[in-house]
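step: validate -> pass
step: tokenize input -> pass
step: predict -> running
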Amino acid sequence: MKTKSNNWRFLLSLILTFGVAMSANAAEWKSPLIPVTEDFTLPNGLRVILSEDHSVPVAALVIIYDVGSRNEEKGRSGFAHLFEHMMFEGSENVGKTEHFKYVESAGGSLNASTHNDFTNYYDKLPSNQIELALWLESDRMRSLKVTEENFKNQLETVKEEKRSRIDNQPYTPAALKFEELLFDNWANAHPVIGSFEDLEASSVDDVRKFFKTYYAPDNAVMAIAGDIDAPALHKLVEKYFGTIPAAARPSVPDVSEPEQKKAKYEKVPDRHAQLPAFWLGWKAPGRRDPDSYAMTVIEKILSTGDSSRLYQRMVKGDQVALRADAGLDERRGPAAFEAFVIYKPGNTAEKVREIFWDEIEKLKKEPISATELEKAKNQVLRGYFAAGSAQSLQRSLGRAELLAEYGLFYGNPRLIDEDLRKYMEVTPEDIQRVARKYFTHDGVTVVDVEPVPAKAEASPAPVLTR
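step: predict -> pass
step: emit ->
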């Protein structure tokens, strides 16, 4: 087995050695964080990024298609998410659901997810089985079975998913309403799961057109990271993907948002909610916007861990809330900074929001201490390097996902290093400036969740979840 220098492990060793007490601002690391062994584009437009790391005999393949709910047309919502399901319905040489059987029988795992601005698929396998993933992914890119039967079958699956994960979950329908109210542009506002009416009104020809438009090699980026031999894998990629025909690149959707000059408000009844709650938030800068780095650090300050400001003030201190979270919903286009609060009986939404606003005003008026800023930056570092993080650089899958995302979104996987440095360069003045710019009373959107008695025949409300 080869032994190579792995720059990401150098930084990981620093974090493990010094812990969270290490000064984030003083941290130095070798670059690149994720070494790119090969980066090439096939004649059909498929970009492929390979990263060798021989520390464990595992490899991960990630393929990201440049299609999400933002690419859908009015009257045809839900297609991007539907296709996440359709991609497992079989292709020319692979039967229905056999993708799962092949990968799992080889000791691997797989999954997929749909977002507003992309759809991704991954296969993680013992490295000596990575050719299997190439065959599976190329076969469905080339020859997915888009039939009336498969379409109707997956439409019913999506319906059941919506009923179980959205309609019958407390606070979740209000979360979708919040997003619809927050954004003015339909491309950003409508939910990823889409509309049943739109899907049911569609034909199998509409579905085939969507597949041919977006599931083409020149509308995708594939990254493979782990215990691989890059030159040999390069040849295998050409073997399996090289003859898949390209398609005309689809147009880039307009996701621009007008400035919000007046607060928005709505109340949503919820028969599954046991306690009142509210969603509150603002339009936020998209990924890699100069203000997005400070916005991410603000998220850590407000809502990461029991020492965060919202928990300390609203849950532990004033004891008005059972839950007080904030998060940045990052997208390539305009994003959303949102807060979700479940508050205790005996309080009003107005009273609880006053306490929340007080914490927001502190961000604007009082410079954050060096200690608290360092702690927030260390939380950012943990997102990159903690074993449990979704995109941890300790994992071949995390590295492959980051390489594919940066390759597709920005055309340059090496920007990962630049972004991490920009997070570490955020200053107290940046925190104040960004908070003042975005967290305004005129630009806020609020959705109150009002519990309503369930009908007598309804089943008991489920456990509180977001």
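step: describe -> The chain has a mean pLDDT of 91.
step: cleanup -> pass
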